[in-house]
Amino acid sequence: MPSDSPPLPLAPFDPDDVAFMRRALELAAHARDAHAEVPVGAVLVRSGVVIGEGWNRSISGNDATAHAEIVALRDAGAREGNYRLPGSTLYVTLEPCVMCAGAIVHARVERVVYAAADPKTGAAGSVFDTLVSSLHNHRVAVSAGLLGEEAGTMLRAFFRERRG
Prior knowledge:
38% of the residues lie in helices and 18% in strands. The protein has 164 residues and is an alpha/beta fold. The longest helix has 21 residues, at 15-35.
């Protein structure tokens, strides 16, 4: 069911946002180059410190839940000793899907910054509004489009190569 919400405006991003998204892009390239995974990377940050990182591992791990966001949340939970991660920002190279958005809400992530929109399964405003739904007792601030062209180019090239 497509969202009736207007597209999210490009938010102003600060130099830290750019640096953390660049790290997420490095992780996406690692997923592609080292593991033949769909190139998506995620970095979870609190108070300017990285508390979790991840890249897609679904193919190599035979795990449908091993999306970059979930891997980063698991990493942060292990490091922090808690699955609740209030005050954190998740930087991810592709708009989260419904599964990842649900986990982000349950983890109490404060903000999500994503690069490329996902017009097929995006749950941060493109198709679904899971992160900001008033039905949840926690809503996540969303900023879209940071280095989106770079992330989108990486994803399109990956799928073009896979399709031959």
